[in-house]
Amino acid sequence: LCYVDESGTSDIPGNTSHFVLAGLSIPINRWKYCDNAILAIKKKYNLEDTEIHIAWIIRPYLEQSKISNFENLDYTQRKSRVQQFRKTELLRLQKTKNPKHYSQTKKNYKKTEAYIHLTYQQRRDFIKEIANCVSRWRFARLFAECVDKIYFDPSRRDQTIDEQSFEQVVSRFERYLQIIGRRYPERRCGLIIHDNNPTVAKKHTDLMKQFYEKGTMWADVEAIIETPLFVDSQLTSMVQTADLCSYAIRRYLENSEDELFDLVFQRAD
User: Fold this and answer.
1) Residue 145 in 3-state DSSP?
2) Strands ordered across the beta sheet of 141-148
3) Mean pLDDT of 20-33
4) Would you state the torsion angle of the CA atoms of residues 237, 148, 56, 41, taken in this order, to the nearest 10 degrees?
5) In this structure, which topology does domain 2-51+127-267 adopt according to CATH?
């Protein structure tokens, strides 16, 4: 099983300098073990029913720093105090008649609502524990295509950034399956499980059909079965883990942040 997710935007210029598409592959008989390992970490931080969306988890929440003794409060108290602060702030912004600022703040609050009971350090610890867990999966392999958009010239290519990235990940996963299948015949076939994005879903499904017919630029596709299975990442911890891997790689490329990268890169193919 190869779980695929992206980090950054494929638009040019977009709001990131890099685009990363990552695929985290695990043997099918290890799926339950991996899922349970991630769930155990989530439960530790009271996040068992919550999506790991690292870009929203790992940012500072200003209101927490404005609540006295926030770190000494329990989870319920923290959540209540932050919600109270945010309601007050939204009411204040409504009166300023700045709809753009109000709308963006409301979006930020909604995206981070599930994590407000954790301090900034606890949120960082949570993400690091997930990354450390992945680093110990010796049976897993990480594939990724990383594009520096400064050097990507659309006029000289017949593929978009996300199309090129998908072809690369498919090719590498296919080649890995061919190699591993010689030694372990029971692992000779694989399936791609992709974060569901309505725009990307049709495009990548059509691309995969082309790959089955003509192959990619680098490999004939024989070991990957079916077109990608697109799933809601909110319901699938393993796709969320692929999101963490792609984020860690992109932040390393853009900002030389190596804490998470050094962990997930241990599983790089």
Assistant:
1) strand
2) 141-148, 18-25, 2-7, 192-195, 229-231
3) 96
4) 30
5) Nucleotidyltransferase; domain 5 (3.30.420)
